[in-house]
Amino acid sequence: MMPSLFIAHGSPMLAIEDNSYTQALHSLPNLLPHRPHAIVMFSAHWEAFAQEVGVMETFPTIHDFGGFPQALYEIQYPAKGDEEIAQEAVVLLQEAGIPVNLNRSRGLDHGHWVVLRKVYPDADVPVVALSVNPNLTVEQQYMIGKALAPLRAKDVLIIGSGSTIHNFSYLDMRETSGGAFEWSLQFEEWLKETLMEWNVTDLAQYRTLAPHAEKAVPAYGSEHFVPLVYAMGAADDDRIAQRLHMSFRYGSLSHTIWQFGTAE
Q1: What percent of the chain has pLDDT over 90?
Q2: CATH code of the domain in which 156 resides
Q3: Count of domains forming the chain
């Protein structure tokens, strides 16, 4: 049984950097029970009102950012798709009453490939790309992840890619030591306690219950938070949460890795 994971994709610069967080990403395959048959991955950078399930023979690499070094724009991550798993994901979502579309035209954005390139650099694990919908309630997002849970028993690794704290208004671009603002730490510790207790009720009310939620997850930027909820829902049958890594950049941009369910 594969666990599900939430992985922060941080800045696109992670694709070409070597630091404690990229090293943690490199080590992730060693923590899994075995090599996944395929990866089903939600990206914060693909928003859609109806759930989209993306599959292609080979995904093109989308460089959906600007103002970065040329080396980033030269990176390609030619992951193969998996038609069978994509079709199964569609059926599972339909059976759960979730509107879903099969998408055969969209490539992998940096929420997908920056993470995948660090975890599986040879692009040799097939991928099914999924969209996110920040307009849904936490409960609805959780149910989408839960609908896909049966895939874990087929050696499919379900990943949510986003960021638990993502607010450009509170980035200190001078902070390069990895230090974190106190409010960022307080939010992450509330989240840790809530997830480890598997308290979906409190998580659904994080905007009013979590300290500094308005800074950590601005109303206009919740799309980076919701992949965490999808990944958590995918392990509803197991209900074990473990934070594998936490570090910071620019004072508040959190790099967290969460494992949901047991790896066995």
Answers
A1: 89
A2: 3.40.830.10
A3: 1
**Residue 23 CB partners (closer than 8 Å, separation 6+):** none
For the record, the structure tokens of 35 come out as 């090599």
Query: At CA 257, angle to CA 256 and CA 260, rounded to 5?
Result: 135
CB 36 within 8 A of CB 185: no
pLDDT tier for residue 97 given thresholds of 50, 70 and 90: very high
Give the pLDDT score at 177: 61
Q: Which domain holds residue 42?
A: 4-260
Segments of the chain assigned E as strands? 4-8, 38-47, 51-54, 100-103, 127-132, 156-162, 241-249, 253-260
The Cα angle at residue 102 between residues 110 and 77, in degrees rounded to 5: 30
* Dihedral angle, C-alpha 70, 119, 2, 112, nearest 10 °: 0
Q: Which two tokens stand for residue 241?
A: 């949460």
